[in-house]
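Write out the 3D structure for:
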Amino acid sequence: MGGALMTLATFLKHVPNNQYVEFAAYQLSGEAQQWWQEECRLLQLQNADIPWDVFQMAFYKKYFPESAREAKKMELMQLKQGSLSITDYTSRFEELCRFSRVCQGAPKTYESWKCIKYQRSLKDNIMTAVATLEIRIFSDLMNKARVIEEYTGTLMATRGRGRTRSRESRNEQPADNHAEFMATIANLTNTMEANTVVTLQAVQRLGQSAGNVNGNSEGNTNDNA
């Protein structure tokens, strides 16, 4: 029963206005069917003679209190696509629309409103793309949004692969620089070691020269004595 009634607005597109109540009553089963039969007896009317708004008011009063309707209405007003895919966003949007009084009326009266509300809550890039098209048939708007989402996803994936290749190219350069840097350090180390050896050899030679000078000076002093 619940599922059938929750999709009532969709089915009503194919039902003449004067048969709304008959169609809705046909969807009822079990306890709900017994409840409506009792309501008809109290109203002393047949389904075909009961206005649609009377049926709605009675049904909502019984199975869907005002507080619950207001909560769902607020949730619909605040709904945004955000991180949801178009498929998930559309599913949630349509679920909440089933609780909206606007969407429970005749389809022609809410189709435009539904499109505007759906469009305004899309992601910015998708909303910008579809806004200029001014689509007022919900199925067309939903399909167009899905196409744009798929195109955007493909474009982002392509750009992602390009960025990956660019990062890989940049990562290779530091490796080359690092190798060059290590080679420079090695050369500098070798140069420093060679210079140290030369310096030590020079010091040793200077030491030897100083020793010879001192030895000669002492010999000359002894001779003079």
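The first helix runs from residue 2 to 6.
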